[in-house]
Amino acid sequence: MSFVSLEFIFIFLPLCVAGYYLCPGKYRNVFLLAASLVFYAAGDIGRMHILIISIIANYVFGLLIGREGMSKKVKLVVLILAIGFNVVCLFGYKYLMILYGASNITMPLGLSYFTFRTVSYCLDVYWGMLPANKSVTDVALYVSFFPQISMGPISRYKDFYKDINERGFAPDSFFAGIKRIIRGLFRKLVIADALLPALSTCFGMEASERSVLFAWMGAIDYVIQLYYDFAGYSDIAIGLGQVFGFSLPENFNYPYASSSITEYWSRWHITLGAWTRDYIYTPIFRACQDKKIARLAGYMLSSFAVWLFIGLWHGLGKDNMAVYILHGMYYFILIAGERMLADYKKARRKKLGLKKKPQSAASIAMWHIYVIFAVILGQVLFNCDSISQYGGYILSMFGGAGNAICQTEALFYLRQDVLPMIAGIIFSFPVVPYLVKAIKVSGRERIMQVLSLAAYVVMLIVSFAFLFTNTYKSFVYFKF
Q: What range does the domain containing 227 cover?
């Protein structure tokens, strides 16, 4: 069951909200857990046992790790077993997909995302951030909460725990959640899905058949489509969390407004970046510091481990695995290069006794252009099935395969996609927050409230129109 399916929007969600708020307070977690298991069963009932086993195993691991009187060595052994269990569950499927082919074996629904949460639970208990939760219902709800089960956002146990038993009904949060859901539906259905026909045609062509214009159009379309698809899902998930009283973490913060690739990845898939920082980068970096390894070398090693992990995590099948590892290494090289350049500039200023000057407008513009260009090349790789396909696509972007400048398909899809492309580009930058701030400063908040309400009504109507007239298209990150 998908967030943009008719059965979810018009049957499951209304019944779930009504049942939740009709339930006595002490039974609401049980109700949400039951609803989450129903949601999961509707999407992947054949492998629901994997989710159940993961919940029970990690509940037991948590109790053992948090047990008073147990020595640190024994707790460490239990932690290693817990992490080993979760990693084997996740990457066992990845390697099966490599051995037997990605088309024959698919990932169980949400396996990547609930594995992140189970590892977080065990580590947070081990580090003493919170005691082990003795309620199996609470742990099960944390692992299987239906707004997050498919594609995140990835919440940490210590953050989710605060809302498990301390939330109530807040009208402002509830209606903010409804608005967030509407925005997510609009982003997914009206912008992201509108660009898919052009993408399918463009990326499905042989390198020599694709004109230079169509290659660039497809690359730009994909950058827009991927952002609005994933950010749209995150909006819906966060909005659903608000409806039920949970504060789920933000996952995107206008990444295309970044002035470096390092900044871009602090704004894109934020919860994945935070998870890898806390559970991979920081422990490795601290270990390097303990071993008296040079700070820059420790940074490089830790960063390399993070990007290798991200590449392996995304990989689906033999050819795909190589693509995603290369994708991870591509961003590692860019971020490492930025770090070395920043260190060089800092050392040079120190040597010459100079103060850091603010960047000029021209310098800022050049850095933004660099980021957009680098992201386009990186995301094209993300959408290719093999390294050879990526090489062919890059050749067609620069006319290296004897490509024509333009073709009929490019003009056809350009006319068809011009509105979602323009809207996608404009609103991928913080235009709306800027306008809201300007209206508030002018003292015309009443006008802003009216315009905001009208905008959400229009977005809802248009989204429903697309929902009823278009064929359902899965979220991009659903496959991971």
A: 201-479
